[in-house]
Amino acid sequence: MMFEPFWKKMSDKYNVTIGGGDLMSYFSDGNNVCWFLEPELGAAIRRLHGVVGNAVTDDRYIVVGTGSSQLFQALLYAFTTPGGPEPVSVVSSAPYYSAYAEVVGFLRSELYKWEGDAYKFNKKGAYIEVVNSPNNPDGTLREAVVMNRTGNGNGKLIYDFAYYWPQFTAITGAADYDNMLFTISKCTGHAGSRIGWALVKDKDIAKKMTEYITISSIGVSKESQFRAAKIIEVVCNGTQNVGSVKSENFFEYGRKILSERWQKLRETIQNSEYLILSKYPQEHCLFSGKLVETLSAYAWLESKDNTKDCNEFLRGLKIIGKSGKICGAHQKFARVNLMCREEEFNQFIERLSATRGKGFINGH
Amino acid sequence: MMFEPFWKKMSDKYNVTIGGGDLMSYFSDGNNVCWFLEPELGAAIRRLHGVVGNAVTDDRYIVVGTGSSQLFQALLYAFTTPGGPEPVSVVSSAPYYSAYAEVVGFLRSELYKWEGDAYKFNKKGAYIEVVNSPNNPDGTLREAVVMNRTGNGNGKLIYDFAYYWPQFTAITGAADYDNMLFTISKCTGHAGSRIGWALVKDKDIAKKMTEYITISSIGVSKESQFRAAKIIEVVCNGTQNVGSVKSENFFEYGRKILSERWQKLRETIQNSEYLILSKYPQEHCLFSGKLVETLSAYAWLESKDNTKDCNEFLRGLKIIGKSGKICGAHQKFARVNLMCREEEFNQFIERLSATRGKGFINGH
């Protein structure tokens, strides 16, 4: 909800109107591998990646999903069917996005199985590694690790680029991997639309993903696709100054807000007796032409005292966080979402400031 | 797409406009068990069932899904987690909607397992029976069968009421089961919106379903929910003559179109040497106050000659059908969708008429 003020201000410009007889069919484009993708959304996505320069879309199929969560599941299905006797291992470097573990495990599928931290994975045979860069929860830039560590070349890679947008990090090049996931939730902040997309090199994988989404939900909301296409188009116009003024560059706006939040957060933590925040490297951003730092969507807080449970500490301050434990990391870490509304962020800073001289509450 | 002309004619009245800053959050109502259900949609659904009289909504939780497919999976999950050593059997009376089998089987879950025809199911222990009434593909009215047949009282029941609307069948009472599924695809024809809903009696089941949808897609498109709420509200107004004229009663319109199609179809089949269509009973409809016949959304065609493959026969006439085999029935049956655009329906009738005196093409 961090970006909401931008959209509220610009609301009219991004209006969409849908008539009672519009968008009624299951089908969007029977000639496309992903037959439920609205062609306007496909075109908008290609344009967006071109404008931002964060991913290659040439020779890629676009598969749309109900959020990138559904596309992650579609890729698991595409990589593992028809299934063999053993479930395929799924890993990601800790700390990892805890939903990966949930999604892989919740239906007790015989096709795949969550095996946790990619740094601890030593099995032979097929595996799937998810690379999330910048990474949720800790904001680090990531590369695949299993192949380099163990030489196991039987891996399939999923690049989750939810946060590879200029407001969060330097765009250092157009990502050119075989299977890349994006979501409008993090790109523009329209989480309620549940629109994600995959850029997929292999046609058979794109077909299998489409099959997954067909079986699981018979496609993806046309209303959300229609609106996402509009929002992306106008974002591109604003970024390229097409019929817009400079103030309408969404990514600059996003970076400005996040940058202010990170400054406040670092100032607050700086003198903390209890918490640490790590620094992120600066890199040259091809999108802005500037040297920029990663501004993670989350604060990855660490207790100075290794024996302290960071999330418990936060809870004592009435701050809602997520324990490092459920991200495959130590309990001295906790994640706090920074993409909230301004009043919530200010409250977070206020409560965090209250730690000075107070010591651990609820605290061991 | 059968109902599209109605919506095109009325398009303006059913317009929705969404501003750039609207519907951005994951959350719709943090106090509701189903926290991603837009309150306006919940209210519209309760009003609709009241107006039509087809289901009880008192003391029921509403869970919204990305189509009723996702809700079916959410119910399977709710009924079977935490899982036991054996997958729970899932059955439905043949001929059944083939997607049930696909959805149950495609991830090779250890939680549940497709066991086919409820009439052939004789195992002890837990099971789930899906009752689809009127039934896809054959249009019959259905009740649960396993308990009556075998006395096995360990079953959970899912009532799929996708077609229990006045255009398709007599509304003979307000269904009052524990777990009932509906979808806007069949109710109003807005299949592209991917909006289904469940009416659920047990709070824990509603919570588990919500958990399923949270893990699998972090909620349901807000744009689709917003639009579905509007469409349902205006349908209710039209049905109740609130600020509308008689011609705006959608359900009467729907029944009229379907009734014309069935008449043409029966006339065409009447003298066929090759095909039969069964008759549906007439019942008193509490909604219209008339004696009405079921007008199935599908033609369930049967070859007069038991040895003939009905779908093969249709293919020879360039008619796209679905074989009875994949619905758990004999290959002498095939299903043809009647809810298509008018030109497609007329083409179907034309091609079907061409059978007279031609004999089986491609045909054994």
UniProtKB/TrEMBL annotation, chains A, B:
Start and end residues of each Alliinase C-terminal domain: 1-354
CDD domains found in the cross-reference section: AAT_like
UniProt superkingdom: Eukaryota
InterPro entries associated with the record: Alliinase_C, Ethylene_sulfur-biosynth, PyrdxlP-dep_Trfase, PyrdxlP-dep_Trfase_major, PyrdxlP-dep_Trfase_small
One Pfam family here: Alliinase_C
GO molecular function: carbon-sulfur lyase activity; transaminase activity
Keywords: Pyridoxal phosphate
Example GO BP: amino acid metabolic process
Family: Belongs to the alliinase family.
Subunit structure: Homodimer.
Protein name according to UniProt: Alliinase C-terminal domain-containing protein
